[in-house]
Design brief:
Distance between the termini: 221 Å
Protein name: 30S ribosomal protein S1
GO molecular function, one term: mRNA binding
Family: Belongs to the bacterial ribosomal protein bS1 family.
Number of helices: 9
Helix content: 10-25%
GO cellular component, one term: cytosolic small ribosomal subunit
Function: Binds mRNA; thus facilitating recognition of the initiation point. It is needed to translate mRNA with a short Shine-Dalgarno (SD) purine-rich sequence.
Number of strands: 30
Shape: rod-shaped
C-alpha cells in the first residue's frame, strides 16, 4: 500500500515537471515568434498589388507598405515577390486586422544606428543633396535627413548648387541629436581634408628654386594665385616682373598657363611663394655699366609722388627724379605740374646705389642753368626790361628770361627818394627798366638797379665840393629850427645853432626866402644824399684865417683891429 502511494506521488511530480517545461517552451516560442512593437523586423514579400507590397512578418502576421517607400534616390523601385526586407513594426494589428509596418521608419532606425557609430568614430558618411531649405540644403543619408548649411557646401561660396543635387558623395557629421531628430553635416570639411592631403602630397614634391608650370586661378590687387596641380601658390605683384607693375592684370589673365619659380615654402602653413621675374636676368646687374654718372638717357615717367617722379630707364630699372632736381626755377611746385605719367623725358644719372637698387636722376641737369645763360647774355651794366612780379618790403622782383627773376633793392629804386617812398610808385604788373648790377650763379640771384639808368643829380650837383669848401646857397624856406637852402638843385638844411657864430644872430627870421648865403661844407653824405652846411663854421674858419694872416691877440692888437685890417686888405684886393 505504501509503495503504491510513493509511486503515485512520483508520477504526479513527473507530470507537474512536464507541464512546467511545456509552459516554458511555449513562452519561449511566443517570445521568439511574436514581433515586438516599435522594433525593426524581417519580413518576406508575398505579393505586390495596387502599388503596395504585402509582407509576411511571421507569427501569421501580414502588413502592407507603399512601393514608394522602397524607391532609391532616382525614384526607381526594385522589389520582387520572395524578397526579404526589413520593416518597422508600429502595431501588431490595426483596424483591418493587419500588422501596421513601415519601410521608411525601418530605414530611418537603421540609418540612425549607423550614423551614431560614424559620429562617434568621426568617420565619413555617404549621402545625396536632394532639396533646398532656408540657409542651406537637405541631405539624404540613406534613411535619415540631415541639414547642410550653405557655408558648409564648399571651401568657396557656391552660386549654383545644381550640379551637386542627387549626386552621392561623402559628408562629415558635425552634430546630431537623435531625440530631436536633428543632424548637421558638412561637405566643406571633406573637401578641406582632401585638399590638405593633396596639398601635402604636392608640397612634398616641390622644392625652393624649382621651376614649374601653373595656371592662374585668381587675380587680386596684390598678386595672383597660381594652381600648381592641387595646391595654390601666391605670385606677388612685386615678383611678376623686374619693372613696375601697377596691377597684376597688366600681364596676367585668369586661366593662363605661366612658368613660375618656387621662392619659398612654409612647411607649417603650406604657403607657397612664387616668382616670375626670378626666371629672367636681373637688369640691375648691368646698371652701373649701362648708365654711367652724368650720362643722359631717355625714360618714361611711371609714377608721380609729392617728393618727385619715378622714371623707367628700361624694364626693371627705375630712377627717382627728386622734386629738387626737376626744375631750375619751379621750386615749390608739385611734380605733377612739371611732368605727367607716361611722358617721355630726358634725364641725367646723378647717383647709383646698386645695393639698394636706387638711381638718382636729374631733369633740370639736361637743360642749361638759366642763370648761367643770363650772365652770358647780360653782363653787368646791361639794361633790361621786365614785368614787376612781386613787391616786398625790401624791393621789387622783376621777371626775366627763362622764368627767372631779378631783384631791385629799395636802395636801387631812386636817386632822389628814400626807398620806402620810391617803392610806392610801383604796382604789380608794371613794366620797368633796370640795369644788371650783379649775377650770382651759385646762389641763383640777379641784382638790378632802376636808378642806375637815371642821372645821379646829387653827384652832379656836388661835383668838386669837399668837406671844408665854402659854397653859396639860396634860402628856400624859413623854419623855427633853421633855414632850408638850395645848392645846384640839392636841398640842405642849416640848423639854428649853425646860423651864426654869435648867439644873438642865430635867428632864422633875420633871413628871407631868396637870400644868398655863404656856408661851409661840414659833411658830404652820398648815402643820404645830403650836404652838411654851417654859416657858423664858415665864420669861425674865416676868423682863424684872419688871425693867422694879420696878427694875434698876444701882440696887443684887438680882434676888431685885426678884422678891420683884414677887411681893408680884402677891399684893397
Amino acid at each position: 500500500m505504501a509503495s503504491e502511494i510513493v509511486e503515485k506521488d512520483q508520477n504526479c511530480m513527473c507530470a507537474k515537471a512536464s507541464m512546467e517545461e511545456f509552459e516554458a517552451l511555449l513562452n519561449e516560442s511566443l517570445e521568439i515568434d511574436t514581433p515586438q512593437e516599435g522594433s525593426v523586423v524581417k519580413g518576406r514579400v508575398i505579393a505586390i498589388e495596387a502599388g503596395q507590397a504585402i509582407i509576411d512578418v511571421g507569427y501569421k502576421m501580414e502588413g502592407r507598405v507603399d512601393l514608394k517607400e522602397f524607391a532609391d534616390l532616382s525614384g526607381a523601385v526594385e522589389l520582387a515577390v520572395g524578397d526579404e526586407v526589413e520593416v518597422y513594426l508600429d502595431r501588431v494589428e490595426n483596424a483591418r486586422g493587419e500588422a501596421q509596418i513601415s519601410r521608411d521608419k525601418a530605414k530611418r532606425e537603421e540609418a540612425w544606428d549607423r550614423l551614431e557609430k560614424a559620429y562617434a568614430n568621426e568617420t565619413r558618411v555617404d549621402g545625396a543633396i536632394f532639396g533646398r531649405v532656408k540657409g542651406g540644403f537637405t541631405v539624404d543619408l540613406g534613411g535619415a535627413v540631415a541639414f547642410l548649411p550653405g557655408s558648409q557646401v564648399d571651401v568657396r561660396p557656391v552660386r549654383d548648387a545644381g550640379p551637386l543635387m542627387g549626386m552621392k558623395q561623402p559628408f562629415q557629421i558635425l552634430k546630431m541629436d537623435r531625440r530631436r531628430g536633428n543632424i548637421v553635416v558638412s561637405r566643406r570639411a571633406i573637401l578641406e581634408e582632401s585638399r590638405a592631403e593633396q596639398r601635402a602630397e604636392v608640397i612634398g614634391n616641390l622644392s625652393e628654386g624649382q621651376s614649374i608650370d601653373g595656371v592662374v586661378k585668381n587675380i587680386t590687387e596684390y598678386g595672383a594665385f597660381v594652381d600648381l596641380g592641387g595646391v595654390d601658390g601666391l605670385l606677388h605683384v612685386t615678383d611678376m616682373a623686374w619693372r613696375r607693375v601697377n596691377h597684376p592684370s597688366e600681364i596676367l589673365s585668369i586661366g593662363e598657363t605661366v612658368k613660375v619659380q618656387v621662392i619659398k615654402i612654409n612647411k607649417d602653413t603650406h604657403r607657397i611663394s612664387l616668382g616670375m621675374k626670378q626666371l629672367q636676368s636681373d637688369p640691375w646687374d648691368a646698371v652701373e655699366k649701362a648708365y654711367p654718372l652724368e650720362s643722359v638717357h631717355k625714360g618714361r615717367v611711371t609714377n608721380i609722388t609729392d617728393y618727385g617722379a619715378f622714371v623707367e630707364l628700361e624694364a626693371g630699372v627705375e630712377g627717382l627724379v627728386h622734386v629738387s632736381e626737376m626744375s631750375w626755377t619751379k621750386k615749390n611746385v608739385h611734380p605733377g605740374k612739371i611732368v605727367s605719367t607716361s611722358q617721355e623725358v630726358e634725364v641725367m644719372v646723378l647717383e647709383i646705389d646698386s645695393a639698394k637698387r636706387r638711381v638718382s636722376l636729374g631733369l633740370k641737369q639736361t637743360m642749361r642753368n638759366p642763370w648761367e645763360v643770363f650772365a652770358e647774355n647780360h653782363p653787368v651794366g646791361t639794361a633790361i626790361e621786365g614785368e614787376v612780379k612781386n613787391i616786398t618790403e625790401f624791393g621789387l622782383f622783376v621777371g626775366l628770361d627763362n622764368d627767372i627773376d631779378g631783384m631791385v633793392h629799395l636802395s636801387d629804386l631812386s636817386w632822389d627818394q628814400r626807398g620806402e617812398d620810391a617803392i610806392q610808385n610801383y604796382r604789380k604788373g608794371d613794366t620797368v627798366k633796370a640795369a644788371v648790377t650783379e649775377v650770382d650763379i651759385e646762389k641763383e640771384r640777379i641784382s638790378l638797379s632802376i636808378k642806375a639808368l637815371g642821372d645821379d643829380t646829387f653827384t652832379d650837383a656836388v661835383d668838386g665840393v669837399k668837406r671844408g669848401s665854402v659854397i653859396t646857397c639860396t634860402v628856400t624856406a624859413i623854419e623855427e629850427g633853421g633855414i632850408e637852402v638850395d645848392y645846384n638843385g640839392m636841398k640842405s638844411f642849416i640848423r639854428r645853432s649853425d646860423l651864426s657864430r654869435d648867439r644873438a644872430d642865430q635867428r632864422p627870421e633875420r633871413f628871407q626866402v631868396g637870400d644868398k648865403v655863404d656856408a661851409r661844407v661840414t659833411n658830404v653824405d652820398s648815402k643820404t644824399r645830403r650836404l652838411g652846411l654851417s654859416i657858423k663854421a664858415r665864420e669861425i674858419a674865416e676868423e682863424k684865417e684872419a688871425v693867422e694872416q694879420y696878427g694875434s691877440s698876444d701882440s696887443g692888437a684887438s680882434l676888431g683891429d685885426i678884422l678891420g685890417a683884414a677887411l681893408k686888405g680884402g677891399d684893397r684886393n
